[in-house]
Structure formats: structure tokens, C-alpha cells
């Protein structure tokens, strides 16, 4: 699993029919300290995340193992909204 911050949405009127009806999000990848890291990802949202939320996502073949993404041509999926995380006893992020 990876961490990302939702920085936008993506709308595509022309796409593979298997992607019809899915919400696509633009994610800024984050490191364990919550800092931007290594670019962006486009992910299918299966949990109802919104802009500015920090999320857990995965990519590659595991992204196609949710109920929503099964047999769909996607490479990343948001599968959780982060409430808090800590590293070494120090809180790195707390949802407002």
C-alpha cells in the first residue's frame, strides 16, 4: 500500500467502456513523513474520497482485486481514507 493526497479529479468522456461509471482521482504521492514524493498517480476511487484527503492506494495487479475494479483496466485504486498515522511514536498526520 502507498500513501497519497487527493489533489484533483480526472474526467474522461472517451474511455474504455469498462471504465464507465468509475470516479478517477489525481493523487500526489506521499512519503512516510507526509511530504510529496515521486510524482502523481491516477486512481479509481472505491471509497468516496475527496480533494485534500489523504488516502491509501495500491497499484499494479492488486488494484484490480476490489469489487469495483474487478476485470477493469486500471492500474491504481484508492482503497482507504486515512484518519491518522504515526511513525516511531510521532503523529505524522491527523485528519481534521
Can you describe this structure in just a few lines?
With 96 residues, the protein is mostly beta strands. Helix content is 0%, strand content 50%.
Give structural notes.
The protein has 96 residues and is mostly beta strands. The chain has a single domain (2-94), classed as EutN/Ccml (OB fold (Dihydrolipoamide Acetyltransferase, E2P)), CATH 2.40.50. The chain is 0% helix and 50% strand. The protein is built from no helices and seven strands. The protein has strands at residues 2-10, 23-30, 36-45, 54-59, 76-81, 84-87, 90-94. The strands form two sheets. A five-stranded mixed beta barrel has the order 1-2-3-5-4. Strand 2 and strand 3 (36-45) form a beta hairpin. It is elongated. The mean pLDDT is 92.
Q: Major sheet: order of its strands? A: 1-2-3-5-4
**Shape, principal axes of CA atoms:** elongated
Report the end-to-end length measured between terminal Cα atoms. 22 Å
Q: In CATH's first tier, which class applies?
A: Mainly Beta
Helical proportion? under 10%
Uncertain segments: none
- Total of DSSP H or I helical runs spanning 4+ residues: 0
Mean pLDDT across all residues, rounded? 92
SSE ordering: EEEEEEE
Amino acid at each position: 500500500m502507498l500513501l497519497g493526497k487527493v489533489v484533483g479529479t480526472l474526467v474522461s468522456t472517451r474511455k474504455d467502456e469498462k471504465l464507465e461509471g468509475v470516479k478517477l482521482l489525481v493523487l500526489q504521492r506521499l512519503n512516510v513523513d507526509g511530504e510529496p514524493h515521486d510524482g502523481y498517480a491516477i486512481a479509481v476511487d472505491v471509497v468516496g474520497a475527496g480533494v485534500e484527503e489523504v488516502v491509501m492506494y495500491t497499484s499494479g495487479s492488486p488494484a484490480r482485486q476490489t469489487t469495483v475494479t474487478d476485470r477493469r483496466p486500471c492500474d491504481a485504486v484508492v482503497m482507504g481514507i486515512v484518519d491518522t498515522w504515526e511513525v516511531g511514536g510521532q503523529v505524522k498526520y491527523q485528519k481534521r
